[in-house]
Write a structure and sequence with these properties.
The complex is a heterodimer of chains A (756) and B (157). Chain A has 756 residues and is α+β, with helices and mostly antiparallel strands. In chain A, 25% of the residues lie in helices and 21% in strands. In chain A, the strands form 7 sheets. A 7-stranded mixed beta sheet of chain A has the order 10-11-8-18-15-16-17. Chain A has a 5-stranded mixed beta sheet with strand order 13-21-20-19-14. In chain B, 32% of the residues lie in helices and 17% in strands. Classes of the chains: A alpha+beta (756), B alpha+beta (157).
């Protein structure tokens, strides 16, 4: 609070409620009665007939699976429940899910995060976690059998368990799971049961249940972060300093304190964070992107009142040094300059690029811009702070991060802080840092005793992002005179921003072209250009840019060599695992690669892997073929997409299909439309009218997804991030084929694609 | 803003009479969410771009972020919470069966827009769907929304 010479408390306006004097001790159970059932979060203590903190079976046989990886639309909680149900042998209709209590995780020796993860992210439901959750289901099943065996005085080995029924065939007796849940929950096993062989699976890989979250979504009862309701709750509207790193200079609370419903006008200063009393266990730390910006907030009875008062509030900012950037091109130019200093760190070196010789040299530079995750549900959270407790209801992708950020902001002991995870209106990486939750805590701390819901407006969302990392890359290849393949590739890459966490080389340094020996001489470097604008995790961080850049560059090499782009890639993949070539060939074949197309139409292809292409049989590999039509005036229509992929095996085919459809459209929008721009250090775009999003009327492509290239390798790898990689370069390469215009930057909508 | 008055307005929501006292400028969106506690209708943009706040007013789909309390006197409002009772049950069932939503945040608005479309055009063409469903879905569920609308209408996919 050094920028403001007075104690912020003088701005607290107490209308009706005495701030700090109202002891509203809300237990989760009381809170639970105030919102529409079913609540998405689990209770903070064991209840009912619990077999493990993960599994509770009710007398009516309802099976509640408590999952630490929150659902954000990709089906992670449904997948975890499928894993449990496969071994538990319950009827799928008896299954429900809750977001596991991170408080219990803390109090009960990491019971949810051991064997799993406390967040949703890549690999959250992979084979390791699958086995863990299946073991939990198997143990519960055997305990149910043991309880039935005791009741019937028969050996447990004679009892079968299926469709939530325990059956002793010889004596023709049966029981529903719920009927013995009480005894079974008290039973223990001498040894953990073996998992059944995959050939005996009935659910995984066989059935494609829809997400368990959908009925509540479709009838409006799903509880997102923004939907939490608590007795006595008030609302806060927020305005953060327009240029990141700037400070609040002053504001005139008197100008708005008489407005209807207004309770308080407060200042937020990142320096007021009280710091965690003990070492944190976060995924992303507690600095930088997870800290709040300077801000003002108005607290009122209703959100509209708070928003009206905030708009009327006179505020002065000290915008800080970020204003030095007149626009984004200043930043991109800075990136280019530092990239070309030759001082980058070598991230991949093979052979000697200087020794290569050839007549044909391909050299080009590429750029991907700032982008905003643009999740549909605004950020924020509802928080009740008292003298010695903090309770938070929020949508978070990483419950552990939200927990420790709240501990850090309040300075309370972890046992005094509770987090209740809600449904999430999209994440795509935006809900990983939890700085929005820290902000909600920081606001509520200044209005203690009353639950305060802080909501970011859409404008705050766009202008206070944790943005896609801009990447500027120069590539140079020397082609072999005989084969046309690169003898040597040099690359220099510059990231904007200075946080290593969001400077990833996937798609740049890991493609098999550069690592399998296909290109003998490789030298790739990275460097970063510090900027005040904060980067974050945007779906497939950095990979989403690197995939575009690398797969466009390889396409350029193919055309320079006069070789078909599919054949060229197959040659470059000849020394690498076969599934890559299978995926590439299948996508090309299904798309009708090689067919004669009318002028202005073209096919383009790209292939990528996430999250690590250098390890055989790891992650997921995808080839995408786009067919485009470009009118003479430069209007692009992406008519058809063909996709082949290898993630080993699939556990829920329709869930995989949904991720590929959605991820492809996400990546298409990213490529065609997305860029946030800068003016005097601040983000310009404030809403969807300035940041176009694909809609149903935008001639969306037919998407054809082909499963036949699945290798069957025994992994069930991830599909959330990957589809955003290959779509952009496939479309760009198709536009080149159609028009001869090579697109080396996104978004395409800002480039002239007209042709004659 | 300073001149904004506080009004008391009566209207019905899902058949129930309601009486709300608030700023006359308060959008129906926030009347529903904050004053009536009906949070199925979602805030997405506040400028009629995204359609997450779509409800039916007097039988027509509108973006509730643009309709102030002062214009609500006597209005008949249907929200996602009342859609099943207003002919939306088939769409809601297909939304689940066909695994349409991902994060689901936009889907209340999508369903309200789809129900309005089918009321006006029981057998919509692709062009009809394109024109009627202008809502934004960041997860990219558009292909499934189209397929579910067509199945509800009994037209070929």
């Amino acid at each position: 609070m050094t920028a403001i010479a007075v104690d912020r408390r003088q701005f607290l306006i107490t209308t009706g409620v005495v701030a700090g004097g109202m002891a509203l001790a809300l237990s989760p159970a009381e809170a639970a009665t105030t919102a529409a059932p079913p609540l998405p979060w689990a209770p903070d203590a064991a209840q009912g007939y619990e077999f493990t903190p993960w599994i509770e079976i009710a007398p009516d046989s309802t099976v509640t699976v408590r999952v630490p990886n929150p659902e954000s639309g990709n089906g992670t909680m449904t997948q975890m429940a499928m894993n449990v149900a496969e071994e538990l042998g319950c009827s799928w209709k008896d299954i429900r899910v809750e977001i596991a209590s991170i408080n219990r995780n803390y109090a009960e020796n990491h019971v949810y995060t051991k064997g799993s993860l406390p967040f949703f992210g890549g690999h959250g439901t992979d084979k390791v976690r699958m086995a863990h959750t299946m073991r939990l289901g198997a143990a519960a099943r055997e305990r149910l059998k043991a309880a039935a065996a005791a009741r019937w005085s028969v050996p447990a080995s004679e009892i079968t368990a299926a469709e939530s029924m325990l059956t002793h065939a010889a004596s023709k007796r049966s029981l529903r799971y719920g009927e013995v849940a009480a005894e079974a929950a008290k039973t223990s096993l001498l040894a953990e049961p073996e998992l059944k062989p995959q050939a005996e699976w009935t659910l995984l890989g066989k059935a494609s249940p829809a997400k368990l979250s959908i009925p509540a979504i479709a009838n409006g009862t799903a509880v997102y972060g923004i939907d939490v309701k608590l007795p006595g709750m008030v609302h806060a509207a927020l305005k953060q300093v327009p240029v990141m790193g700037g400070r609040l200079k002053s504001f005139k609370a008197d100008a708005v304190k008489h407005m209807p419903g207004v309770r308080a006008v407060i200042a937020i200063d990142p320096a007021n964070s009280r710091k965690s009393p003990i070492k944190d266990e976060t995924s992303f730390g507690l600095k930088g992107t997870t800290e709040v910006q300077h801000a003002v907030a108005v607290i009122a009875d209703h959100f509209w009142q708070a928003k009206m008062a905030l708009e009327a509030l006179p505020v002065e900012w000290d915008l800080g040094s970020g204003t030095h950037y007149r626009d984004q091109t200043d930043i991109y130019q800075g990136m280019r300059s530092i990239r070309d200093t030759g001082e980058g760190k070598v991230v991949l070196k093979k052979g000697d690029v200087a020794a290569a010789s050839g007549k044909r040299v391909v050299e080009a530079e590429y750029l991907s811009p700032y982008g905003e995750n643009a999740v549909m549900e605004p950020l924020g959270g509802t928080v009740l702070v008292t003298a010695d407790t903090c309770e938070v209801w929020c949508a978070t992708q990483d419950t552990m991060q939200a927990f420790w950020v709240s501990v850090d902001e309040t300075g309370l002991a972890p046992a005094q802080v509770k987090i209740h995870g809600t449904a999430m209106g999209g994440n795509f990486g935006r809900r990983t840092q939890a700085e929005d939750i820290r902000m909600a805590v920081a606001v509520a701390r200044q209005y203690p005793g009353v639950p305060v819901k802080t909501i970011w407006t859409r404008e705050e969302m766009f202008r206070q992002g944790r943005y896609r990392t801009p990447i500027s890359t120069r590539f140079r290849a020397v082609l072999d005179d005989a084969t046309g393949l690169p003898q040597a590739v040099s690359g220099d890459l510059c990231f904007a921003g200075d946080r290593p966490l969001f400077q990833l080389t996937q798609g740049y340094a890991d493609p098999p072209y550069f690592n399998s020996g296909a290109i003998p001489n490789v030298n790739l470097t990275t460097i970063n250009f510090p900027v005040h604008i904060l980067n974050g995790a945007y779906r497939g961080p950095c990979f989403n840019s690197n995939a575009f850049i690398t797969e466009t560059f390889i396409d350029e090499c193919a055309y320079a060599a006069g070789i078909d782009p599919v054949q060229y890639r197959l040659s470059l993949l000849a020394k690498w695992e076969k599934p890559w070539s299978d995926v590439l060939k299948l996508a090309a074949e299904k798309a009708g690669w090689g067919q004669k197309l009318p002028r202005g139409e073209g096919l383009g292809i790209a292939i990528t892997n996430w999250p690590m292409a250098t390890i055989p049989h790891f992650g997921s590999t995808m080839a995408t073929v786009a067919r485009v039509a470009v009118s003479k005036d430069g209007t692009v229509a992406v008519k058809r997409i063909d996709i082949a992929f290898d993630c080993g095996k699939v556990a829920n085919a329709d869930a995989v299909r949904a991720q590929i459809e959605g991820g492809t459209l996400f990546g298409l929008n990213m490529t065609l439309n997305e860029e946030v721009t800068i003016k005097n250090g601040a983000i310009v775009e404030g809403n969807y009218d300035e940041y176009p999003m694909l809609r149903m009327g935008d001639s969306l492509p037919e998407i054809h997804i082909h499963f036949e290239a699945l290798s069957g390798h025994d992994r069930f790898d991830l599909m959330g991030e990957l589809p955003v990689g290959p779509i952009g370069p496939a479309v760009g390469n198709a536009i080149y084929s159609a028009t001869g215009k090579r697109l080396r930057a996104t978004p395409f909508r800002k480039q002239d694609l007209s042709w004659t | 803003m300073e001149e904004d008055t506080v009004d008391t307005v009566s209207f019905t929501v899902n058949g129930q009479p309601q009486r709300v006292e608030a700023y006359s400028s308060t959008p129906l969106l926030w009347v529903l969410r904050d004053h009536l506690g009906m949070t199925g209708t979602k805030y997405g943009c506040g400028i009629a771009q995204c359609g997450a706040c779509t409800v039916h007013v007097n039988g027509e789909a509108v973006r509730s972020c643009q309709l102030p309390l002062s214009g609500l006197a006597g209005a008949d409002v249907t929200t996602i919470e009342g859609l099943a009772a207003h002919g939306g049950e088939t769409l809601q069932r297909l939304w689940a069966e066909m695994n349409v939503p991902q994060c689901g945040y936009c889907q209340a608005g999508m369903l309200m827009a789809a129900a309005d479309l089918l009321k006006n055009k029981p057998k919509p063409s692709d062009a009809d769907i394109d024109t009627a469903i202008t809502n934004i879905c960041r997860c990219g569920t558009y292909p499934r929304i189209r397929a579910a609308i067509k199945r509800a209408a009994g037209v070929a996919a």
